[in-house]
Design goal:
This protein is an alpha/beta fold and 735 residues long. It has 25 helices and 29 strands. Strand 23 and strand 24 form a beta hairpin. It is elongated, with a radius of gyration of 32 Å. The protein binds GDP-alpha-D-glucose. GDP-alpha-D-glucose (GDG) binds next to strand 12, helix 13 and helix 14.
Length: 735
Amino acid sequence: MGKNKSSKNKLIIISNRLPVTVSRKKNQIIIKESPGGLATGLRSLKQKKKVLFIGWPGYIPRNSREKKYIQECLINDHQCYPVFLSRPELEKYYYGFSNRTIWPLFHYFSSLSTFEELEWKSYQKVNQKFLHIIMETAEPDNTFWVHDYHLMLLPELIRKVFPESSIGFFLHIPFPSSEIFRILPWRTEILEGLLGADLIGFHTYEYARHFLSSSLRLLGYEHEFGSISINNRIVRVDNFPMGIDVEKNNRLLADPEVQRETEHCRKLLGEENKIILSVDRLDYSKGIPQRLKAFELFLSKNREWHEKTTYIMLCVPSRTKVSHYRLLKEEIDRLVGKINGRFGTASWTPVNYIYRSRPFKKLISLYSAADIALVTPVRDGMNLVAKEYVAAKKDHNGVLILSGTAGSAEELGEALIVNIHNKNEVVDAIKKALTMPQQEKISRMKIMRKRIMEYDIKHWTQSFIKSIEETKNIQASREHRKLNQHGKTEILSQYKKSKKRLLLFDYDGTLISFSKKPEDARPDKELKRLLISLSKKTNNHVVIISGRDRNTMEQWLGDINCSLVAEHGSWLKILPKGEWERQVSIPFQWKYRIMPILKNYESRVPGSFVEEKEFGLAWHYRNTSPELGKMRSHELYDNLNEFLANTSLQLMHGKKVIEVRIAGINKGVSADHFLRMKDWDFILALGDDWTDEDLFKALPEGAFSIKIGYGPTEAGFYIESPTACRALLRELSKS
Ligand code: GDG
C-alpha cells in the first residue's frame, strides 16, 4: 500500500467497518457507499483536512487477485484503506470478544458476557492488524480518530509507534460503572489501551464519569476536571453527545417521494388510526420483548384504543451469528404472534412487524407519519432513532416516549421518560401520549427539535476534532516548560556564576518519594550527602520547607547546616542562629474541637489517619481506597470549610491530605523571611504540591522554580519525578 505523503492536516478515521460495503454479485465486485452519520459529519472538515478511512470492508476476498483489486478500488476511489479479516478472526474478534464479551458487559448484561482467552487473543491480534495498516498508511504527525469498542487497544498501540501523533477515541456504547467494568478479566489492558489517546469521548457525562472512576480505582489515576496526567502526557476525558445529519434529514423531508410515502402510510392504516413506531437493530439492549409486553398490557387495559392504534415495529437483522440474537428473534416472533392472535381482527393487526432493513427514505416517511415514537431500550449508548424522530417532526405534531437509560435522555428531557422494566409506567406513557393536548405536544417537541438542530453531526465532529487540538496545545505548552538539557545548562551556569545563592526545597514528593507511611520517608544516605554537600558551600543557603512537624524535621535533618521550616512556617530554624522559633502565638484550644471531626473520618475511612502537629491537624488519606478517600476528603473539606468560617484558621487540601492550621502561615510567607535576608543573585525553589505554589508565587523575577510532577503550576519548569529532581541536585552539588 503506497504511503500518502501528507502533513499535519491528515485525519485518519479508524473503525471496525468502513463507510463502504463490498459484496459480490454475479461474479462482479460491487462497492457501495454506506455513509453513516460520521462520514457526513466529516465532510464539513474536508476543506481543512484530508480524511482517510481504515476499517473492515465487510467482505472476505476469494483470492489475492480479488483482494488487490478491492484494495485499489477502495483506496483510489473512496480513500478507504481496508483491513481484511479472516473468517476465524471475525468469529473470535468480532462476534466473540466484541459482541459476546464487551457489548453485553458494557450494556449491563453481565450474565450474557463470556470470557474466552482465545477470543481475547484474537481481539489483541486484530487490533495489531489495524495498527499495521495504519503504519503503512499514516505519518507520525497525523491525527487519528479511533471509533468504538472493537478497537479499544488501538490508541495505546498507535501511541507506541507514533508518540507525537494526536489520537482521539470515541466510544459509541455506554461505559459502565466501575463495578461492572471490573468484572472484565482484561480490564487494565483495556483501560491502558484507551489511555493511549489524547482525548477520550463518550456520549454522556455519566459514561465519562464511570471511565474516570475506573481509571482511578483500577489504575490509581487521579483526574483534574476530566484531565488525567500520565507521566508527562495529558489525557482529556469528556462527553460529546452525537448528533444526527440534520441537513440530510431536512432534504428528505422536502422530497415529494417521502411526502407521498408518508401520506400513503397514513391512508393505509386509516386517517383516524394513531401510529406508534419503533425502529431498532434487533438487539437485546433495545428492550424489544419488554416493549411488546408493555404494549400487550396497554391493549388489555385500554379496549377503547383497539382498532384505533397500530404499532409499527421495524427491526433490522443484526449479529444473527450470535446465539443470543437468534433466541431473541424467536422470542420476538412469538410475542408478536401472541399479541396479534389475542387482539387482532380481520381489519386490524395491532403489531405491524417488519423484520428487514428499509431505505432511509422509507424510514423518514415512517417517522413523519408516526404519532408516537416508542424508543425504550434497556440500555443504549445514545440512540439516534429518538433524535431522528424528533428531527422529522417538522410540524411538532408527535410524542416521543424514551427510556431514561438511553444516552439521548440526557438531552431529551421533554420526552415522556419511562423505565421499560415498569410495564405500567410504559402503559401510562402510551396513554398520555395518545391523549396529549396539541399545545403540549408542540411545546415539548419544539424545545427538543431546536436542540437537535443545533447539536447536529457536524457540530459533534467539529467539536471533537477541536478538542483533540486543544488537548494537544495544552500538552505543547507543558512540554515547553519541561526542564530539558537547555534549561538545566542555564540553571547550572547561573549557579556557577553566582555568589549568593538561596536554595528552597520542599521535602516530601520533592527531595524524597512518597511512601505509604509518612514515617518511612526518612532521608536516605545519598540525599543526606547531597544536602550536606550543598549546604557546606559558603555561597549557599539551603532551606528545607516542609509541612512536617518540627521534631521530625529536627531528627531527620537537624544535623545538616541548613535552615528548616516546619508546619508550613509555624516554626522556623534560621541559620546562622539555628534555633527553632515559633511564628504563631495563638491558643490551640481549637484543636480540641477539630480533632473529633477528623477522628470520625479516621474511623470511617479505613487506611486514613490523623496527624497532630503543634499548630496544625492533618487527616491523611494516601492509603485508603482511592475513590472512597477522594469522596470523603471532599466531604470533610466542605464540612470543615463551613465550620472554620470566620475563624483564624485555614483549611488546606494538599496531596492526599486535608490540613487545618493557623491562617496567614504558608510556604510563601515563610520563604519571605529568607528572600529578604540578602540580595541573592541565584534563587532556586523546588516543590511538588499545591502548598508549594505559595512559595513559587513569592519568588522574585529571575528566580528559578521547578514543579516536580505535572499539573497546573506557577513554577517556570516541570520535572517529572523526585528521581529526576535528585539527578539535578547531584549536578548542582558537583558544580
Ligand atoms: C450504536 C449505539 C449509538 C435503523 N434501521 C434502519 C436504519 N437505521 C438507522 C437509524 C439510526 C441507526 O440505524 C441506529 O442507530 P442507534 O443509535 O439507534 O443504534 P445502534 O445501531 O445500536 O448504534 C447507539 C450509535 O451507535 C451512535 O453512536 O447511538 O447507542 O448502540 O441512524 O436511522 N437505517 C436504514 N434502514 C433501516 O432499516 N437505512
